[in-house]
Structures are given as C-alpha cells and as structure tokens.
C-alpha cells in the first residue's frame, strides 16, 4: 500500500483528504494540534494504518526532526500533500499587522519549503512520487486587502511550477490545486475567531466544501502513471473569479 503524508490534517481540506485517501493509502498525518490528530487517527485506524506527527510547519528544526525520525517502515513515502496554510487578517497593506503578514509567509511559503525538502529524499526513492501543493485562486488573481496572502499563494504557484521542472528527472508528479471559496475554518482564522464575520463570507451562495477539494486531490492521484495533472482550479458554481461571487438576495 502506498503512503501519503498530509500537512494541516487536523481540519478542513487536510482532514477531508485524509478520509478520502484512507481506503487506498497508509497515512502520515501532520498538524499542530496533537489532540485533533489523535482523534482523526482513532477515526481512521479501522480503515488504514496511521501515524501522526505533531509539529508547526514554521519551525524548521521540528519539521526535519519529526520527519527524519519516522520509523523506518514509514519512510517509504510516495505522496506529499502540502495542505498547511492560513490567511491572517483582511486589511489593506498599510494597515495590516506586520505579525499577520510574517505568519502568512512563514506558514504558506517557508513551511511548504521545509516540509518538501524534508520529505523529498523519500519521494525520490519511491520512483513514483507525487507532490500536491494547495494554492488558491488568490495565487492567480490578487484582490483587495490581501496583498501578502495573495503573494504567498502566488509563491506556491511558482514553487509548483519550479518543482515540476526540477524534479522531472525523478519522475515525481507535481499538482497545484487552487480552490476558490471553500467553507472551512479558513475565514474563522482570517477573522481571528469572529464567527459572525466568517459566516458572512459564505452567505447567499453555496460554497465549496472540504470534501470537494479532497475528491479532486484523490482523482489527481488516481491518474495513470504516465498522466500528470499539473494544475486544478476549482470554483463553486456561483463564483467567476477571485472577486466575483453571485449572491442570492
């Protein structure tokens, strides 16, 4: 059975992806919240083999220590899903809190780089590796009050393209997944726990849910060996681009 490592597995798209892959893959589930990882492990242990790693992708030392110290039987990693990422705040550049901006670069860009570098030696040994990077429509189209978030996701888009070039000789597929509006904890984190503000983001239309993205990821992984899906952009039907969503009155 192939092995997949998923970051940000404690909720949202990461959790839904773990569930979607559980019948076909052994899972290495990573996240900051140890209690949530243990809950998910218990939920899936009757379906597949699961191991959990609790670390913050921003912490380079933690990332490499946890991944390098995996038991030997778990080092045959075939799939890496770089899902961990967040938006912090929604404010124009001049008023945004510097810590929020730093957090988005540290998690969305540097964290993805750390995890990818740590896992890459195992993916190369696999001879059938696959990296899936979770970008966003924000990586393709910049919108107001999110300059650094959009910049961080644009970096993910560029990293996906560059990895695809550099890893070509190793037969490693690289798929970039760019969701539009998905109703997860994303907005709750962006608005720092303000549920009323978070809920308004999805009012008046049917947004995507985490399972929709998980299904797309699973389908990308199920392609024949010679087929590489390079880029997937997914909107809810009511969304036309990063800024235009039709909301019912």
Mean model confidence by pLDDT: 95
The low-confidence parts are: none
Number of helices: 8
CA-to-CA gap between the ends?
A: 49 Å
Considering DSSP H and I runs of 4 or more, what fraction of the residues is helical?
Answer: 40-55%
Q: Outline, from the CA principal axes?
A: globular
Structural class: alpha/beta
Strand order of the largest sheet: 3-2-1-4-5-6-7
SSE arrangement, N to C: EHEHEHEHEHEHHHE
- CA radius of gyration: 17 Å
- Tally of strands: 7
Content of β-strand: 5-15%
Main beta sheet, described?
7 strands, parallel
Molecular structure report:
The structure is a single chain. This protein is of the alpha/beta class. It is 41% helix and 15% strand. The protein is built from eight helices and seven strands. Helix 3 packs parallel to helix 4. The radius of gyration is 17 Å and the shape is globular. The termini are far apart. The model has no long low-confidence stretch (mean pLDDT 95).
